[in-house]
Amino acid sequence: MQAVVEIRDLRKSFGDNEVLSGIDLDVHRGEVVCVIGPSGSGKSTLLRCVNLLEQPTAGTVRVVDHEVTDPDCDIDRVRRKVGMVFQQFNLFPHLSVLRNCTIAQDKVLGRKGAEADRVARMHLERVGLEDKVDAFPAQLSGGQQQRVAIARALSMDPELMLFDEPTSALDPELVGDVLTVMRRLADDGMTMLVVTHEMAFAREAADRVVFMDAGAIVEEGAPEQVIGAPREARTREFLRRVL
Length: 243
Ligand code: ADP
Ligand code: MG
Prior knowledge:
- The protein has helices spanning 43-50, 75-79, 97-109, 113-126, 142-154, 172-187, 199-205, 223-226, 233-242, and strands spanning 3-14, 17-28, 32-36, 58-63, 66-67, 82-85, 160-164, 192-195, 208-213, 216-221.
- The protein is α/β, with parallel strands linked by helices.
- It binds adenosine-5'-diphosphate and magnesium ion (MG).
- Residues 43-44, 164-165 line the site of magnesium ion.
- Magnesium ion binds next to helix 1.
């Protein structure tokens, strides 16, 4: 299997606070890897190191055959292949849903006009929002806005999708629709690295679950093992608190 993400001995410090202390992790093509763990364990920092939103202190990160930790790497070329969805949706409030999904196609890929519209509409339909193309973000629920953010990322034809707690800012009744979209994306074969607190989602959708604590991977494996029958005391204690 081909690794889309290959992380070796990744370290990250903020000042003298080491928040990632030697992470090794691969994500293969078509694989869904869910990262779970307590708040402050370094999950977001790990995700942000993948597309260099944070600069690693040491170690190597390869993403779709580019070593992003090489100072000569053209990170913009790599980021084009990596979609990222955050807790906060960060849509452009003054642009329509459709334009939110075409502006980066236009500016970054040079894909314009009818072709960009066609791609955006295809992905908006995929997330169930084909009837909202002319709406503005403020007219949508949080769950709908997050689905627009997913459609916007997909419109760039990513080879990898990163999700950082995409449902944490949503009212409980809106979480399900977003998870359904993510599940469908996983079923369609998208390569996904997902930080989530949704254990049911991780259990069903993940090929592999990674449990992090204090900047290190404590345990990883099939969801039924890590969530269903954890080997490590720290994993058990975390699950006792969240399940
Ligand atoms: P998680 O996503 O698992 O909650 P984070 O990766 O956000 O954890 O944070 C891990 C640790 O790194 C925390 O102690 C946090 O305070 C610290 N941290 C994260 N980002 C920064 C930053 N930009 N500057 C300083 N410390 C940071
Ligand atoms: Mg986080």
